[in-house]
Amino acid sequence: MANGCHYTHSVWDPLIFKNLKNLIGGRVRTMITGSAPISAEVLSFLKVCFSAPIHEGYGQTESSAASCVTNASDPTAGHVGGPLPCIRIRLRDIPEM
């Protein structure tokens, strides 16, 4: 998976991961995580186990929930991705920080 955006494997999915996928319904196409950070190792493991992309997101009440979400074709983990098209983000220097 790290070399590309392939969440499925023709040998391992039917042998090992089919039962795990069936535990959560068997028809999952994508997953979304938010609220708290998830380690990159755990996220990559879950992507392979469930054979589905998992989007990481960041948001806050002031922005009506989601502000940043990872792209489905991004194989890396451990970041929340770029801002959504409807969100404008500005970084400001604060002298006391």
Which characteristics define this entry?
single chain; 97 residues; alpha+beta; Rossmann fold; four-stranded mixed β-sheet; 2 helices; 24% helix; elongated
Layout of secondary structure:
Layout: H1 12-23, E1 31-33, H2 40-50, E2 54-60, E3 65-69, E4 82-83
Parallel strand pairs: 1-2
Antiparallel strand pairs: 2-3, 3-4
Structural features, described:
The chain is an alpha+beta fold. The chain has a single domain, classed as Rossmann fold, CATH 3.40.50.980. Helix content is 24%, strand content 18%. The protein has two helices and four strands. A four-stranded mixed sheet has the order 1-2-3-4. A hairpin with a 4-residue loop joins β2 (54-60) and β3.
Q: Structural class, from helix and strand content?
A: alpha+beta
Taken as a percent bin, the fraction of beta residues is: 15-25%
Mean pLDDT: 78
Low-confidence stretches: none
Rg (CA only):
16 Å
Number of spatially distinct domains: 1
CATH architectural arrangement: 3-Layer(aba) Sandwich
